[in-house]
Specification:
Length: 325
Amino acid sequence: MKSSIIFILALLSLTFLSAQSGTVEIDGDDNDGTTAALQIRSANNTQTMLLDGNEIDALSQGLFLNNNVNLPIYLGRGRGPVTVNTVDTSAMLTIAARKDKAYSFRIADSSGRSYVSVDRNNNFSVNTGFFNVGFNMRAGAIAATYNSGIFQVEDDAGADLIEVRADGDFSVLNNISKGGGSFKIDHPLDPENKYLYHSFVESPDMMNVYNGNITTDASGMAVVTLPDYFEALNRDFRYQLTVMGTFAQAIIKEKVNGNEFTIQTSEPNVEVSWQVTGIRHDPYANMNRIPESVEKAPNEKGFYLHPAAYDKPASMQLDTDGKVE
């Protein structure tokens, strides 16, 4: 009787399991996410894995590919590509986004902080640990993390440190240090063949310059009205006056007060060219005053930002952060 039972069980098992040429074949239900030809359960029955011909599912707690002995896990080690959420095999690795997920691709540290990510709107971000750089790759173009620009560098709070806008404008949140600067335009007299350059006007102070022309009245007086923010922005005013068209004297009758000043000439109806400068004293300028002369750090001494200008070799180059290259 016992041998008969064993024989019957063997016959039943062969309807599902057969061995051919060293392989094991299991026939059963197609993997539909709830049942499959082969189900593997944990001892406490809390984890179940479903397998059929070319599909693996997990009924609970997700599907883990893990090697507890710190050995590698290989995906697509042969010729076949690896795809995620797509059947597109045009590349060796393809990851497709889902609308219900914030990211289609993300590399994060142990705390979950993203270092490289692509979100579902095709925004590509790199977090260097100091700032984030984001690009938008829709329509084959590189655009900004926000719609206002094409390139941005942000701080951890999301404030734009550097932004290049879609219209070509460039903005920087804080100070710029540079060796020189100019504008470059098509030459007004020969725009098809030449460029025109003008250098920036430099000053050891955070100086603003205002100028204009004005004609005194019959009594030789003229009031120059400055912008309404002038005194809020500037201090330490300096004046220059030039009389035009006649020999006459011109003086500052009344200095800047209430965003205006008064000119007086020795003759009536005299045209005067005027210039007033001021040193910024707004809150940002007061907090970030630009130093005129700074001692180099000990490790920077003997090196140059521009060694070629002093006939020195490139090996004596400092980068913009003062580090030896």
